[in-house]
Amino acid sequence: MLNPPPPPVSESTATASGAPVGWLQRRVVAPLVGLLRQGLAPEQLALTVALGIAAGVVPVLGGIAPVATLVALRLRLNMAAIQLISHLMTPLQLLLLVPLLHLGARLLGNAQEQNITLVQVRQLFAHDWRAALHLLWRAELGAVLLWLLGSVPVVAVLYFVLRPLFRRLARRVTAGKPAADPPAQ
Q1: Average of pLDDT values for 128-155?
Q2: CA–CA distance from 20 to each of 1, 6, 139, 176, 181 (Å)?
Q3: How many CB atoms sit inside 10 A of residue 83's CB?
Q4: Are 110 and 139 spatial neighbours (Cβ–Cβ below 8 Å)?
Q5: Which of 42, 94, 166, 168 registers the highest number of CB atoms within 10 A of its CB?
Q6: Are 146 and 106 a contacting pair, CB within 8 Å?
Q7: Residues with Cβ < 8 Å from 27, sequence gap 6 or more?
C-alpha cells in the first residue's frame, strides 16, 4: 500500500527555507521583529521587554495585567508587547511567589512565625480570620517591597543587555535580511 502524503505545512509553521518554526519563534520572536519592522525603536522595545519581565514577576496573583498596563500607559510603551512578555513570566512568578512571601513576612516584623505554611494559614482562617488576613497582608506588602527593590537593577541590566541586541536585529530587518528566519509571507 502507498503511504498517504504528508499534510501540507502551513505558512505559520515553516520558514522561507522550509525548516519548521518553534513555538517561541512564532509567538515571541516574530511579533517582536514585527514591531521593529513597523518602526518601533530598538531602545523602546528593549525597555518594553525589560519592564515586561519585571511586571511579569510581581508577587501578587492577578497583578501582572494591571501592573503591565499601568507601566505601558505611563511610559507610552507598546501595550501588546509588554503584555506578551509579562504573561510569559507567569511560571517564574509562581516560582518566586512563596519565597517572596516568606521574605516579606520576615521583613515586616513577623519574627515569631519564621515560615508561613498552608497548614498555618488554614488554621488561622478557621480560628481567627482577621489574624490570617493581617499575616498575609504583611507578607504580601513585604513581598511587593522586595520585588520593587529587586526590579530596579534587573530592569537596568536587561535594558542595557537587550538594547544592542535589538539594534542589531533592527539593522538586519531594515537591510532586508531575514531576522532569525521569520515565518514565510
Answers
A1: 90
A2: 28, 14, 46, 21, 10
A3: 18
A4: yes
A5: 166
A6: no
A7: 84
**Each residue's pLDDT tens digit, 109-122:** 765 555 667 787 78
Take residue 82 and report the three cell numbers written for it.
Answer: 509588554
Burial 3-19 (b: 16+ CB within 10 A, else e): eeeeeeeeeeebbeeee
Reference 93, options 114, 120, 62; nearest CA is 62
- Taking the C-alpha atoms of residue 165 and residue 68, their distance in angstroms, rounded to an integer, is 23
Extract the C-alpha cell encoding 122: 488554614
In our burial notation (b when 16+ CB lie closer than 10 A, e otherwise), range 63-80 reads: bbeebbeebbeeeebbee
Using alpha carbons only, how large is the chain's radius of gyration in Å?
A: 22
pTM of the model: 0.75
Residue that the C-alpha cell 488576613 belongs to: 133
What is the CA 50 to chain-centroid distance, rounded?
9
Residue type (1 letter), 87: H
Cell of 33: 521583529
pLDDT at position 184 over 50 = no
